[in-house]
Amino acid sequence: MVEGPVDVELEDGTSVRSDRFMVALCACRRSKNYPFCDTSHRRKVRATRENT
To answer: Which residues form a coiled coil (predicted)?
Structure first.
């Protein structure tokens, strides 16, 4: 976690900004709000007979 506001430069050179007080950066790239974490990493697909 880092304290905001935060400017993040992405790999392609674009910059995104968050004005939130605390910001978590996404390391798993599952976030729909990448590069900021939306806790998508916590969602797991349960193993069933069809997808095992």
So the answer is: none
